[in-house]
Design goal:
Layout (H helix, E strand, L loop, with lengths): L1 H24 L31 H14 L3 H14 L4 H17 L3 H14 L7 H4 L5 H15 L13
Helix pairs in contact: 2-3, 3-4, 4-5, 5-7
């Protein structure tokens, strides 16, 4: 009898248990995220950057001379470049650069001998000196530089004593 008596109540109980289990498994509504508290102020280490050494008088004259040249002020440029050389540029590449700009001005003024001389001085200061492709393609000073460089390379080649004929008496 007890079995018959409990059966009618069993179905609603099972149904209630199922509903409650489904409600418990249902996703909960998402709360809006609260803003995070500000991070503690931590100073990041600054990268160590070596500051360039201050320019000396000769380097300042070189920079001024190049700037004057690029602005078309050739007379002041020539004076500044010459001052840079006489003030004692220490780096051979800088010496060659000063001579290069002096050579450019001489070539444009059709002073070919002075132009050649400045290119020779540039190569003497820095044997690895060369013009950029744009500079070497210039119709005025490009051919002069190529000739001076070729002369310097011809002098630098060692002489093979076997191929040199003795002078006739």
């Amino acid at each position: 009898m007890t079995y018959a008596y409990t059966v009618p109540f069993r179905r609603p109980l099972i149904l209630a248990a199922l509903i409650l289990s489904c409600v418990a498994c249902a996703p909960k509504p998402v709360k809006e995220a609260e803003p995070l508290p500000p991070a503690p102020a931590v100073e990041e280490p600054k990268p160590v950057v070596a500051e360039p050494a201050p320019l000396d008088k000769a380097q300042l004259e070189l920079a001024s001379g190049i700037e004057s040249y690029e602005n078309g002020s050739y007379k002041p440029a020539a004076k500044q470049l010459q001052n840079a050389l006489t003030s004692g540029l220490k780096v051979p590449a800088e010496q060659a650069r000063a001579h290069k700009y002096l050579a450019f001005m001489h070539c444009v003024a059709r002073r070919t001998t002075a132009c050649r001389s400045e290119f020779r001085k540039a190569l003497a200061a820095d044997p690895s000196f060369d013009l950029t492709p744009a500079e070497s393609g210039h119709p005025t000073w490009g051919p002069v530089f190529k000739k001076v460089k070729a002369e310097g390379q011809a002098k630098a080649k060692p002489v093979d004593k076997k191929t040199v004929k003795p002078a006739a008496k």
